[in-house]
Amino acid sequence: MKKIMLAAATATLMASCGEKELKLQENNIDQIVKAMTLEEKAALVVGVGMDSGEEGLSATIGAQAELVPGAAGSTHAIARLGIPATVLADGPAGLRINPTREGDEQTYYCTHFPIGTLLASTWNQELVEEVGKSIGEEVREYGADVLLAPALNIHRNPLNGRNFEYYSEDPLISGKTAAAYVRGIQSQNVGTSIKHFAFNNQETNRTGNDALISTRAMREIYLKGFEITVKESDPWTIMTSYNKINGTYTSEEPELVETILRNDWGYKGVVMTDWYGGKDACAQMHAGNDMLQPGRPSQYHEIIDGVNNGTLAQADLDRNVKRILEYIVRTPRFKGYQYSNKPQLEAHAAVTRQCAAEGMVLLENKNNTLPLSKEVKKMALYGITSYDFIAGGTGSGNVNRAYTVSLVDGLNNAGIQVDETVKAKYVAYQEKVAAEKAAKKDDNFLAAFLPQPLPAEIIPSSAELSAAVKANDAAIITLGRISGEFLDRTVDNFNLSKEEQALIAQVSKAFKAAGKKVIVVLNIGGVIETKSWKNTPDAVLLAWQAGQEGGNSVADVLTGKQSPSGKLTMTWPNSFTDHKSSENFPRAEKFQLDLSTFMGKEAEKKEPVETYDWTNYEEGIYVGYRWFDTQKMAVSYPFGYGLSYTTFEYSNAKVENNGQQLTVTVDVKNTGKVAGKEVVELYVTAPQGQLDKPAQELKAFAKTNELKAGECQTITLNVPVTDLASFSEKESAWVVDAGQYNIHIGASSRDIRCELSAEVNAQSTKVSDVLKSK
């Protein structure tokens, strides 16, 4: 980027001669745009670039060291006009910066919060907002201006490698969760960048894949979450995705970035590329993609040449520059905020511990195995991940934290002793695996950021099991999966290995023969196969990847310190192939990862391959439970499912319709013996109209307060009539059909407790007729 700075500085010197001093203020942005040279404008819309010295070396991982070491990128400063540089840093599980700095004894650790799937599984927008506030405070106090988060793409298929960062197969959950996260962070006077806009639903060839999607599926499924987030939280920035949509890169598609985002939804903020996203700088500028990150000298020159030769309209460039300046005047750096480099890490650790426990989902609990009885004092821990607990994902979603509380530590902190003999065998095995891995070290820079497979599980001998049964009161088996960007999961990763199956079977058999309980803990980032083994252990706890306090959070749930109240935000199928999208989702094992394509380089030209070069979303709107419930297909765990240590009764359900909104109330009573929270889910079945429709769709949800035994709370759920609409491609309109809408209130999509109905009049809302198949 030195060439850009030199060129811009020369232009600055020439422009400043004979001109009175003019500095950026909130009320003179148009004047500043007029005063800027072409070179300055080109510099402002192109990021500063990475600090590696070799263009593109650290693409997509973030290594901008000039202002905040380890931040992902920054914007150019233009001193003569009082325009400061601003800093963009990775998320979304927390701020990602370097924890140490050369010549500096101070540490700069950040809090590792739970992954996106866990946050969404809380179904608690207030709690997610509190998490956002904590992250936002760290962003501000470490000197960054924007967190590059949240990520809210749809779980189209369980094999998507980046599902751990995303929230749900349902756009309402995705949008509401993301909006709460954004509100929390931006309450700290720093910005967010919701991503990846849009249709980024696979990692296989993510920089070149062309998503072929019907306009209806776009509007109802893949764009709806972004629309909710934009309208309910006003994010400062939005990040476009790498992929194409119906033949055009998203960052180069004006119908997406200008027409839908700005004209239809009213968005006023900045749009930026993902790191090295897109190919044509002038096309991106024209499309309304205001900022190119991390920035390359070639883009700077393309923009200048484009304006000079007419390829790029000056008005398009000026429009984008104005938006960036409107963003800059909101930032802490522009306002001269004196950041402390000392955020409240101890307080934030308490927040992550509590929210992680609330998002864990109790899948099985035979004979009230959990919470653990007071008699359980010593436990045998099996599974590699029991001793190397996974806090979160790899790549840009990782957080450099001071510590991770292991499951061993969490149980010890709860007063439960872990069998040292069993532990010693796993520690020795892990040391052996680590030594073998070190001997085969990959020198490729990006290899360290790739999700690596865990070593094969070890199976205890009969003698070892016999000794462990005698010495312990119960057993835990932890199954883990590494989550991360760049790679989609394989079918083998979705299924359990033969070693994992044997471990569950043999440990369960041995302990149950002695009348002792076995609990399986899932330390994973996405859905795995459960049907074949879930009835073997006594309990199954989905702990997800719970951040740096994960071991404590699991122990809080296992011991009953906190009653589980998480619910699934995605369907768990009996088999991967039960998903309709499995017919046209890439099998990662068939494709070789080309790391060069993640650094802005063109892939080698080959014959186009389906699901690699293009993916046809043939299932349309029938994603997740919309497919399974419409087909009445058996599943392992339905959407919205999750057990508690108590029970809840739903009663006195009522609906009022004022013509604009359905207002539903229902009483929820804790009928068990311990305190707990319940998630109330509202689904709607639409009358038959001009379009085919799913059996039911989630239209509202709420979480109760923590209810004591016998306590009752009235829950109110509001559904705007416009939210009952389906998208008509023929009319390019959101259409509400007249007729009776059946309302289902329940604890999951398959556990309906109350039924209501309401008569609704027809209505139609036109929107832009764009993004059609080409």
Summarize it.
The protein has 774 residues and is of the alpha/beta class. The radius of gyration is 26 Å and the shape is globular.
Protein described:
- The protein has 774 residues and is of the alpha/beta class.
- The strands form seven sheets. The protein has a six-stranded mixed sheet. A six-stranded mixed sheet has the order 10-15-14-13-11-12, sandwiched between helices. A four-stranded mixed sheet has the order 8-7-5-17, with no helix packed on it.
Number of helices: 20
Q: How confident overall, as mean pLDDT?
A: 93
Spatial order of the strands forming the largest sheet:
1-2-3-4-6-9
Helical content band: 25-40%
What does the secondary structure layout of this molecule look like, with pairings?
Layout: H1 2-16, H2 29-35, H3 38-45, E1 73-74, E2 87-90, H4 116-121, H5 125-141, E3 146-148, H6 171-186, E4 191-197, E5 210-212, H7 215-222, H8 224-233, E6 237-240, E7 244-245, E8 248-249, H9 254-264, E9 270-272, H10 281-287, H11 297-309, H12 314-328, H13 345-359, E10 361-365, E11 378-382, H14 407-413, E12 417-418, H15 420-439, H16 462-471, E13 474-480, H17 491-494, H18 498-513, E14 517-523, E15 539-542, H19 550-558, E16 572-573, E17 614-616, H20 625-631, E18 635-637, E19 648-657, E20 661-670, E21 679-685, E22 697-703, E23 712-720, E24 726-728, E25 733-736, E26 739-748, E27 751-760, E28 763-766
Parallel strand pairs: 2-3, 3-4, 4-6, 5-7, 5-17, 6-9, 11-12, 11-13, 13-14, 14-15
Antiparallel strand pairs: 1-2, 7-8, 10-15, 16-18, 19-20, 20-23, 21-22, 21-26, 24-25, 25-28, 26-27
